[in-house]
Design goal:
alpha/beta; D-Maltodextrin-Binding Protein, domain 2; 5-stranded mixed sheet; 7 helices
C-alpha cells in the first residue's frame, strides 16, 4: 500500500516534540487527529514507529530510522517555502527584455527610469535587436516591438504614443536626384539600407497596402527600404510591450 506522504510531516513533528498534544498544537488540530494519522502510517508501513506513554511518546528503532531519513527533506521543504514566500514582497530578480532598435522613446523615456526607481532590486538585462523570434522560447520576460509584428496570442499593452516614420533626404541630395512622387520610386534612389539582423533577407516587392507603404528591394540587395505614403510622406507606429513573463499585468 502506498504510504500517505502527508503523514510524514506530522510524524516528524511528533518525533521532534515527543508528544501528540504538542504536535497537535503546532498543527492546529486535535490530539486524536495526530494519533490517528500516526496509526494509519504505522499500518501502511507494517511496523510501529512510536511507543505511546501516558504523557509522552518515544520512537521505536524503526521510528528513529524513518525520522533520520525524512527530517532533512522536510526541513529543506520548509526552508524552500519560506524563501519563496519572502519573494512575494518587493521584486528582486533579473528581468530580461528584448527591445527593438527604434524603441528609443522606451529606452530613454520616463517609463523605464521610473520602473528602475520603484524596483531597485530588479536587475535589467536589455538586448536591443530587430530580429523577430519567440521571446518565451529564448528566455525573455518581455519584449518591446511595433504593434504590427507582435504575435496575436501575446498579451500586449502600449508603452508609447503613436510615432512617425519618415523618408528624408538632405537638401543637396534633393537638388541632385529630385524627390520621388511615389514610394515605388525609392527603389531607384540611394537609400540607406536597413535589415533587422545581419543575415536577414527581405523578399522583393512586399507590399503593405493598408498601411500605405512598400518595402522594396533590388536584385542582389536585400536591404529593407522604407518609403513614404501619399498622405504627406509618413506613417504612424506605436510601440507595444509584449509579455512572455512577469514584467507587469494586462488584466
Amino acid at each position: 500500500m502506498q504510504p500517505d506522504f502527508n503523514a510524514l510531516p506530522v510524524f516528524a513533528l511528533v518525533a521532534e516534540e515527543r508528544s501528540f498534544r504538542a504536535a497537535a498544537g503546532r498543527l492546529g488540530v486535535t490530539r486524536s487527529a495526530v494519533s490517528q494519522t500516526i496509526r494509519r502510517l504505522e499500518e501502511t508501513l507494517g511496523t510501529a514507529l512510536v511507543r505511546r506513554m501516558t504523557r509522552s511518546v518515544s520512537l521505536t528503532e524503526a521510528g528513529e530510522h524513518l525520522h533520520a531519513q525524512v527530517a532533512p527533506a522536510i526541513a529543506e521543504m520548509r526552508a524552500a517555502t519560506e524563501a519563496t514566500g519572502s519573494l512575494s514582497g518587493r521584486p528582486r530578480r533579473q528581468l530580461r527584455l528584448a527591445v527593438s532598435s527604434i524603441a528609443d522613446r522606451f529606452l530613454s523615456g520616463p517609463l523605464l527610469a521610473n520602473f528602475i526607481e520603484a524596483n531597485p532590486d530588479v536587475q535589467l538585462d536589455i538586448v536591443v535587436t530587430d530580429e523577430e523570434f519567440d521571446i518565451v522560447a529564448e528566455g525573455y520576460d518581455a519584449g518591446v516591438h511595433l504593434r504590427e509584428v507582435i504575435e496575436q496570442d501575446m498579451i500586449a499593452v502600449p508603452v508609447s504614443g503613436d510615432g512617425r516614420q519618415l523618408a528624408v533626404c538632405s537638401p543637396a541630395y534633393r537638388d541632385r536626384f529630385g524627390v520621388p512622387s511615389h514610394p515605388r520610386e525609392l527603389a531607384a534612389h540611394r537609400c540607406i539600407g536597413w535589415r533587422p539582423a545581419p543575415k536577414a533577407a527581405l523578399p522583393l516587392g512586399v507590399r503593405r497596402e493598408r498601411q500605405g507603404i512598400q518595402r522594396l528591394g533590388r536584385a542582389g540587395n536585400h536591404h529593407q527600404r522604407h518609403g513614404a505614403d501619399d498622405q504627406g510622406g509618413r506613417r504612424r507606429r506605436r510601440h507595444h510591450l509584449r509579455h512572455g513573463g512577469e514584467l507587469s499585468r494586462a488584466d
